[in-house]
């Protein structure tokens, strides 16, 4: 029978118990790994955890697909409280020692922990989403051209704005989130140089609360709305839901991120004003990695998902968006030009 195990936190006590099991005859680090007849896979969530209607939920969708289609037993681990989520190493160690293969860290913040844990479990594949800084024979770097999808969002925003002011809200000012900003701003300006782009980040590293606090996103959106913005694009994880709420209540357009947020149940009350979303095919990246391990041909190294393979894109779930034929035509042309190499999208503002 298939099952899902959720691990709220992995602290020192849990790690000690795991080490004790190894000393008493359990699997050692070097021979840990899934039973081929009883495959198991796990994901460790980023800040905000499952239920963020965005990044983490996209990874969960891939895990659920693997459970349904491949018969894989699945485990999930939530982030712990505390600045920087300090228990990542223990969490990944426990998941690997339990026989999960692959073990997937959702987000670039897992890079140092995976670099530390992966060499101790050479027969286990570790997936690292959104980061290429840490590599290894058993590490698969699942990365995306976020700037390309964000460029399309910028085209759409520039076409629909009536005030010629649009907003970008980033959760935390990191190089990854600045890729979203760069692509969006370039798409806006290439479409209409007279449109003003207001940019705001919710927190600065090492404070990553900008990915998990909807109130921060809501306040930032309210400020941008007061300054005249009538389209706001948020790349802020769970905090982005607050921006979507504020923008919707003002009857202005929001643009979602990572998941197709028009279809997220937790945002259903605001969906009429979610124009579109910049999607990342995180579900398939998770599923494909799990399947590769199950098939005995585990992925490793950089696996990149770009616009050319629909690894990033712009959602068209909102009927109001699909009826804007001038907007969708402009987006389609921009997509074709990016794929053809006629447009090179910047990765930094």
From TrEMBL:
Keywords attached to this Swiss-Prot or TrEMBL record, sorted alphabetically, are: Cell membrane, Lipoprotein, Membrane, Signal
Task: Write out the annotated subcellular location.
Answer: Cell membrane
Which cellular components does GO assign to this protein? plasma membrane
What this protein is called in its record is BMP family ABC transporter substrate-binding protein
Q: Which family does it belong to?
A: Belongs to the BMP lipoprotein family.
Signal peptide start and end residues: 1-23
Alphabetized InterPro entries for the sequence: BMP_lipoprotein, Peripla_BP_I, PnrA-like
Q: Which domain of life is it from?
A: Bacteria
Describe the location of the ABC transporter substrate-binding protein PnrA-like domain by residue ranges.
46-330
In the bilayer, the protein is annotated as: Lipid-anchor
Q: Which organism is it from?
A: Streptomyces solincola
Q: Which CDD domains does this entry report, sorted A to Z?
A: PBP1_PrnA-like (cd06354)
């Amino acid at each position: 029978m298939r099952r899902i195990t959720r691990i709220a936190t992995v602290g020192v006590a849990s790690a000690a118990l795991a080490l004790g099991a190894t000393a008493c005859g359990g699997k050692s680090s070097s021979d840990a790994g899934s039973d081929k007849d009883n495959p198991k896979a796990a994901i460790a969530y980023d800040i905000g955890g499952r239920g963020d209607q965005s990044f983490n939920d996209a990874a969960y969708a891939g895990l659920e697909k693997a459970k349904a289609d491949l018969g894989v037993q699945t485990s999930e681990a939530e982030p712990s409280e505390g600045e920087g989520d300090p228990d990542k190493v223990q969490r990944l160690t426990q998941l690997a020692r339990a026989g999960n293969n692959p073990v997937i860290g959702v987000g670039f913040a897992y890079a140092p922990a995976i670099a530390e844990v992966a060499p101790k479990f050479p027969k286990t594949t570790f997936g690292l989403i959104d980061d290429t800084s840490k590599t290894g024979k058993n590490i698969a770097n699942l990365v995306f051209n976020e700037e390309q999808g964000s460029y399309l969002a910028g085209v759409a925003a520039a076409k629909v704005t009536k005030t010629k002011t649009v907003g970008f809200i980033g959760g935390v000012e990191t190089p990854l989130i600045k890729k979203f900003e760069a692509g969006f701003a370039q798409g806006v300006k290439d479409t209409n140089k007279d449109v003003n782009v207001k940019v705001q980040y919710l927190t600065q590293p090492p404070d990553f609360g900008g990915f998990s606090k909807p109130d921060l996103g809501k306040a930032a959106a309210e400020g941008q709305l007061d300054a005249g913005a009538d389209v706001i694009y948020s790349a802020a994880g769970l905090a982005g839901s607050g921006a979507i709420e504020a923008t919707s209540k003002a009857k202005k357009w929001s643009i979602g991120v990572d998941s197709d947020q028009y279809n997220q149940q937790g945002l259903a009350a605001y969906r009429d004003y979610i124009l579109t979303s910049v999607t990342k095919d995180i579900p398939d990246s998770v599923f494909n990695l799990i399947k590769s391990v199950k098939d005995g041909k585990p992925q490793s190294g950089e696996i990149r998902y770009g616009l050319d393979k629909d690894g990033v894109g712009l959602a068209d779930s909102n009927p109001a968006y699909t009826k804007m034929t001038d907007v969708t035509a402009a987006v389609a042309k921009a997509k074709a030009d990016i794929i053809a190499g006629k447009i090179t999208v910047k990765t930094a503002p």
